[in-house]
Write a structure and sequence with these properties.
Layout: H1 10-20, E1 24-29, H2 35-46, E2 50-56, H3 59-62, H4 70-74, E3 78-82
Parallel strand pairs: 1-2, 2-3
Helix pairs in contact: 1-2
Length: 84
C-alpha cells in the first residue's frame, strides 16, 4: 500500500481511506477526538469490518473532548488502551 502525506483537508482524506475498507481497519493513534471518524468506524464495524483501535489511556482520550468509545465496542469494534 503506498504511503502519502497530507497537510490539508486531512479529515476528508482519512474518511476516503476508511470508506474503502472491506475486511479490516487497524488504527493506532495517540489521541482521538473526532466524533465523525468514530461514527464511520462504528458503521464499518456494524457492516462486519473488523475494526481495532489502539489508543493511549490518558486524559485526552478519556476526557470531555473524547468521543464515546463505548459506541465502537457496542458496534462490534475493539479498543485497546495503552498506558503512557
Amino acid at each position: 500500500m503506498p504511503t502519502h502525506a497530507y497537510f490539508e483537508d486531512i479529515q476528508s482524506q482519512i474518511i476516503k481511506e476508511l470508506q474503502k475498507a472491506k475486511q479490516q481497519i487497524l488504527l493506532a493513534v495517540a489521541w482521538f477526538t473526532d466524533a465523525t471518524l468514530l461514527e464511520i468506524l462504528c458503521q464499518k464495524a456494524q457492516k462486519g469490518v473488523k475494526v481495532s483501535l489502539l489508543l493511549q489511556d490518558d486524559q485526552i482520550n478519556r476526557g470531555n473532548y473524547a468521543p464515546n468509545f463505548d459506541n465502537l465496542q457496542k458496534s462490534g469494534g475493539e479498543i485497546l488502551w495503552v498506558k503512557p
